[in-house]
Structures are given as C-alpha cells and as structure tokens.
Amino acid sequence: MATKIVTRNTDYAVRALCYMAARESKEKGGIITVTELVKELGMPRPFLRKILQKLNAAELLISKKGKGGGFRLARPAGKIFITVVMEIFQGPFKLNDCMFKRKICPNRKACFMRKKLEAIEKFAAAQLKGVTIREILNGR
Amino acid sequence: MATKIVTRNTDYAVRALCYMAARESKEKGGIITVTELVKELGMPRPFLRKILQKLNAAELLISKKGKGGGFRLARPAGKIFITVVMEIFQGPFKLNDCMFKRKICPNRKACFMRKKLEAIEKFAAAQLKGVTIREILNGR
DNA sequence: CATAATGATACCACATTAGTATCATTTGTC
DNA sequence: GACAAATGATACTAATGTGGTATCATTATG
User: Fold this and answer.
1) What is the CATH number of domain B8-92+131-138?
2) pLDDT in tens, B23-50
3) pTM metric for this prediction
4) B70-93 tens-digit pLDDT
5) What totals of helices (H) and strands (E) does chain A contain, helices first?
6) CA–CA gap between residue A55 and residue A34 (Å, rounded)
7) Looking at domain A8-90+133-138, which CATH architecture does it have?
C-alpha cells in the first residue's frame, strides 16, 4: 500500500476548511452548518462532525451551538497551516526510523539507510511548512 | 503514528541480506540456513522464512532444499538495491495521492497539495534510488 | 529410509484508521 | 416554557493492513 503522508481525517478537514474559506469570501462572517458541508462535500456526516469538533477544540474553528449555530473559521485562511491540521489528526510529522534501530544492527556505525530517511523527512517537512488553506484554495 | 517508508518485512529482509553479504565475504560461497540467521539476527523464525522465500522467488536469493540446504545471495551485494527489496514487500513506492483526488475537489485547477506530495515523492525516490546492500554494509 | 532443510499456504492477532450511534447541552423562535 | 435545530462528548463497531504462527508437502544428503 502507498505510504500515507496525510490520512483521511486530515484530507476531510482540509477540504472542509477550504470550502468554508471559499464561502466566507463571498458572504462575510457566515456561519456554516454540518448539514451544508455534508451536502456540498459528500462526506459521512457523523465522521465530519467529529472532525469539525476537533478543529474547534484546536481553535481553528469557532462553533456556535443551538439553533442557527454552526462553525466558522477562527482566523483567515492564510493563517491556517496544513502542518497544524496534520498534527491535530496525525500527531507530529515523522517518518519511521525503525530500520536498524535495534542493537542487532549488523554494522555499528551510523546507519546509511537512516541518513537517507532523515534527509527525506527533512525535505518533506520543508515542503509542507508554509502551506496554508489560502494557498491550496488559490492553487498557490 | 509515524509515516512508514519501510515496513518490518523490508527491514528484516535488508538485515538478512546484509548479514549474508558480510558472511560471504569471509567465507566464499557459503550457504546459510534460516537457523543461523535466526540465531544471529534474533527474528521470529517462521516470519523470516516467509521473507526469505519471497526473496528467493524474486531471485535475489538462491535456495537449496534438503539436508545441507539453505540460502545464498544470487548476486553481489553491490547489485542488490533496496528499492527492489522495498518493492517486493511493499509494492511500488508511492506516497498517497488521495487528497482531493475525488471530483468534489473545491478547486478545479491542478491541486497545490498534490504538487507538494509529488515533489516529496520524487525526492524520496531519488534518495533511495542507488542504494545497495553493499553501501549499507559499508555505511556508504 | 531418516533427517534436515526449504516450498507453499492457510490461518490468527493486533493496531490503526474509518465510520456509527447515542445522549447531553445550548440557543433561537413561537 | 416548549420545541426544534444546532453542536459537545463519548462510546462503540467495522474494515484494513501488518506482523506473526502453524502445518503439511517436497527435496536432497548420507
């Protein structure tokens, strides 16, 4: 199977955020309900709810309970970084370093494989670092 | 959880190959049994057997059945590429591209996120491309 | 023929991810 | 205040992938 850099959680979250950012630019300060998001984005409702609740807990969204309630962005799209979203759903970004980590390692020197993986991890982090919802919406 | 670039299968396989390559340079053409590998590398025996069988099927090892049998490298360590080993156990190397792959994508343009993931994938492939068992053994 | 090795294959266990269900709480409207 | 419409919290279930076992068949050597 393909190596996963983003999970479905993150994927859905980013899409929802993009949708909300796009709608907000048309209709200022509008609150958006789960119902609308589900209709527009076609995701399973209870799953999306859980995701939005997490985004709310992480203060990327602001929620309003009760009739007429819903969610809105807690800050401008240009200040919502996907690295933050990824961290919420996936924890800190890391590539696995398990290879040769055990003491059975056939050579005692610093492992070559490990160096390669570290380089990849560094590059990946750099690529993702500055990316925001705004940029994704604009295609940069 | 950490993003996995190499699975345990691959990890074990690479270690076994390294061990075999190291022993071969001392004692030319020696056949090595699962028993020896298990003793030296401390891996679960039936699991390692399955792994070696796959390496054999992929023609990285040559097996000899029957009493006095075992495995030996099918080619010099410098010609065994970890990309090949990875492919055997993990399939073709790919980062997930599921994000926005569906038609619900909020912007129709080529997706920015996707571009980033592709860049990471390219870099990773380049890093791993030339690496052989020999290099790992030597620490390069 | 016994023994020691691999070949083939089916099965099991555990963790993670994806998704569901339910009930509690809040808020607006009549 | 009652009702309806929204989220909060949380526990549960399902699907998948990875790691690992078990078993029997086959082959080669002495």
Assistant:
1) 1.10.10.10
2) 987 776 689 999 999 999 999 999 999 9
3) 0.90
4) 999 999 999 999 999 999 999 999
5) 6, 2
6) 13
7) Orthogonal Bundle (1.10)
